[in-house]
UniProtKB/TrEMBL annotation:
Keywords: Decarboxylase, Lyase, Pyruvate, Zymogen. It comes from the Bacteria. One of its GO terms (biological process) is phospholipid biosynthetic process. The keyword Metal-binding does not apply. Coiled coil: none annotated. One of its GO terms (molecular function) is phosphatidylserine decarboxylase activity. It holds the Pfam family PS_Dcarbxylase. The keyword Kinase does not apply. This is Phosphatidylserine decarboxylase. It comes from Oleiharenicola lentus.
Length: 307
């Protein structure tokens, strides 16, 4: 039986599209075959392989991969802060910056009379799942699998604080812009590292085991927002993504949409968690998630409004 393609809803186009998966054959073999799963546990999930691949993507010769990648995946070079041929390595291209204004931040303009501070935005480019209540985040990838807040946050008291809150899972593919940003204005605390493995976070893998999200290496930052309360912004490492780099200054107030950090090579994930009753997630995100589709949208677009 042929493997089911990964489909998602494109927010801007309002169409359902099929994902062009980077390394799809390898992913399906690794997570879908007995021999592949043996290699997964022996090597793929471990940091050594990702460090090695990251090292290769940081060699000068890797720059030769940039232009073919841009062409194969139809990337918009006009939004890059640098010309595609000026990147010294593939990794430098991978975590590229964009031109100012390439990602407008929703709610920055208050000309309509609405309070822009009450609008939260998506923290990253990618495919998003939105759950108004984290307790409902069960069975999306595979029947019977529930999001384990306590295991994910690694702190029982913190999990209790967010119990019944709202959850956004933002999945980044290798073709996406790989910097992540603050979804709300506020004051971020010190990022907390929780060490773990480096499984893939593709639906191909998560359909096998949702727990990869809380078994992987991840960083948890609590942002104190005067409008949204405490917001947990969490980055997850994945296969070939051993490096989560924080570029912000902990303790310094940040604006909504301000850069928080970046991922080095690979696809990865950002998880954003709100306390119960603090946000009303936008209806299109919630409805498409309930219909079994991720929503492709870009950093800075609306996530929801303060509750």
């Amino acid at each position: 039986m042929p493997a089911e393609p990964i489909r998602y809803f494109h927010r801007a186009k309002k169409t359902v599209e099929t994902e062009q998966v980077y390394g799809e054959a390898w992913l399906r073999w690794t997570y879908g075959s007995s021999l592949g799963r043996l290699s997964l546990h022996a090597l793929v999930k471990r940091a050594l392989l990702s460090r090695y691949y990251g090292w290769r993507m940081s060699l000068r010769a890797s720059a030769n991969r940039v232009l073919p990648f841009v062409v194969d995946y139809g990337l918009d070079v006009d939004e890059f802060a640098k010309k595609p041929y000026s990147f010294r390595t593939f990794n430098e291209f991978f975590y590229r910056a964009l031109k100012p204004g390439a990602r407008p931040i929703a709610g920055h303009s208050t000309s309509s009379g609405q309070d822009g501070d009450r609008v939260a935005v998506l923290p990253a480019d990618g495919r998003h799942l939105a759950f108004q209540n984290v307790e409902a985040a069960a069975g999306f990838y595979a029947k019977g699998q529930k999001f384990d807040l306590k295991a994910f946050l690694g702190d029982e008291a913190l999990a209790a604080k967010f119990a019944g809150g709202s959850l956004l899972i933002s999945r980044l593919c290798p073709v996406d812009y790989h910097r992540f940003h603050f979804p709300v204005a506020g004051q971020p605390g010190e990022p907390r590292l929780i060490n773990g493995y480096l499984y893939s976070v593709s639906p191909i893998a998560l359909q096998r085991n949702l727990a990869y999200l809380w078994e992987n290496k991840r960083m948890v930052t609590l942002v104190e927002s005067p409008v949204f309360g405490t917001v947990a912004v969490c980055e997850i490492g994945a296969t070939m993504v051993g490096s989560i780099v924080q570029t912000h200054v902990p303790g310094r107030a940040v604006a909504k949409g301000e850069e928080k950090g970046l991922f080095k090579f690979g696809g990865s994930c950002v998880v954003t968690i709100f306390q119960p009753g603090r946000i009303r997630l936008d209806a299109d995100l919630v409805e498409q998630t309930a219909a079994g589709l991720e929503v492709y949208a870009r950093m800075g677009e609306r996530l929801g409004e303060a509750g």
